[in-house]
Amino acid sequence: MSEMNTATTGIPREIERFNVTFRIQHVLMFTTFLILSFTGWGLKYAHDPEGLASIWIRIWGGPDTAGLIHRIAGVTMLIDFVWHVIYLIYLFATKQMTINTKTTIIPLPKDVFDVIKNFMYFFGLSKEKARFGKYSYAQKFDYWAVFWGMFIIGSSGYALAFPMQVSYIIPSFATGWIWELLGLMHSDEALLAIVFILFWHFYNEHLKPEVFPMSWIWITGRISTETLKHHHPLEYELLFPEEAKKEKKG
Amino acid sequence: MSQKTYAVAVAPLLFLLFFLPSVGFSQESETCLSCHSVMKGKIKVQSGSMVDLNVDAEKFKASVHATLPCTECHLKFSAASHASSGAAVPSDILSLSTKISAKFTSDPVAGASCTKCHEGIYQKVLSSVHGKNILGKKQVDGALCLDCHGSPHYITKVKDGKSPMSRKYQVETCGTCHGNQEIIEKYKLEENVMDSFKESFHGRKLHLGHTRAPVCASCHNAHDIQSKNDPTSPVFGNNKVKTCGKCHKGANEKFVPAITHKRPGPIPHYGEKLLILLTMGTFAFIIVHVLLEAFADIRDAVFRKKEGK
Predict the structure, then answer these.
(1) Packing angle between helix A20-44 and helix B201-208, nearest 10 degrees?
(2) Separation between Cα atoms, residue A213 and residue A202, nearest integer Å
(3) Which of A160, B59, B197, B287 is most deeply buried (CB count within 10 A of its CB)?
(4) Which residues in chain A are closer than 8 Å to B294, comparing Cβ atoms?
(5) Measured CA distances, A19 to A91, A134, A138, B303 (Å)
(6) Chain B 229-248, CB below 8 Å of chain A: which residues?
(7) Which residues on neighbouring strands pair with residue A8, listed in sequence order?
(8) What are residue B34's phi and psi, to 5 degrees?
């Protein structure tokens, strides 16, 4: 049924989803993320299991070098994040990006209903899966998790990497406990980020039967209109209203 | 002379090296060790304490004291070995030995004789919180030379890595007292110091073998250690600015509270609880979601094949 429709219509076979800037930002983000996770893990679990962390850290050139790698990767990630935010501001300022409820990545009440709808579907209580715009709630969650990570892990990491410089701006009432808190924030939320990526991102973008071994959008930046129609029907309807109408009637 | 003939000429000479004593015990030590290296067990001495008779010759040979004759420290034995009266001991060492005799029961003269070579350090120790505890308070469970450095027969350089005061073992060694609940309670020491150091960035890095991570003595001083409440202690009040500044250039009053051995205050404590709650909540959501979605996919693939497409 669907094959016939695409064959007869004049719509493009694929559309650009992420431009090259976004793709580079993503590559920088995940390479630094992996390096940070690998080097940081050794320090977080320095004591247990006994001896293993020492071996692991030696793979990264010993604790001195691993620390340096961790700092360089951390600063690179922060720069990548700042670049992303500035780029977004630029896109909005030049009207290349506008806010539309069907294409925005900003969480909306609809996302909560989508979660409920999907859970109903998982339990067999509903025959309909949630229908998404450009970004499903899973993808929004993925995206904003990075912001949370940057806010918590990035800021604390910056403070821990440059304690001397940061100590000047810390209000005196906080000096007694802030460093302890920063250490905990960095380490606890790093674990959250790692597990989040391992379960959520890896399942949704790698392991799911329909994307395995991975969704190639991170390299090509393009999504086929077939996939778009299937996974992002609201965006499809927005982009190709004529086709969508025809298909509904058909 | 060709290289080969040169080698032939030198090889026998090199071979002779095997017959030379490698470190060379003194003649006297050889005599003592001929019995004491094979003797086993302990005997009771005059003071009533049990003394181990065995000296491991191999380990002694590897120690920094290997070349010293036994009577360099065991001064009482220098006249005739095992004579009941013993030899005359210099008065300064004798007076020091009586001061430490309660603590150093086996051979207090030997314990005091460290000062013959290490006088400056010995004086520092005696005026430190550890020394004052023994001299002033007459306690016997406090630290003196051997409690930290181990047996003088087997003592190695701190940099060797096998010494109990080496970077690898120092924290553990200090912990034998500072992690001992009885001693902590008796002397009202700061609790939790070993754990808080272990958990700290310093402790973790040290454990992993970081070359610049501090050990206990890096901040608290070694032989001239004082209580943290003593104004001369490097970790007392604003002395920390200078102490931390040894590694952290430009350390200021706001920076130095970063490291304490206290239990975390309420804000970090409840802050962490909050973070754990958030983390666990997120885990619960994503894991349940991923599993349910996977099951639903399998269900659709197996049971709803026909309906789906």
Answers:
(1) 80
(2) 10
(3) B197
(4) 203
(5) 12, 15, 21, 40
(6) 248
(7) none
(8) -55, -30
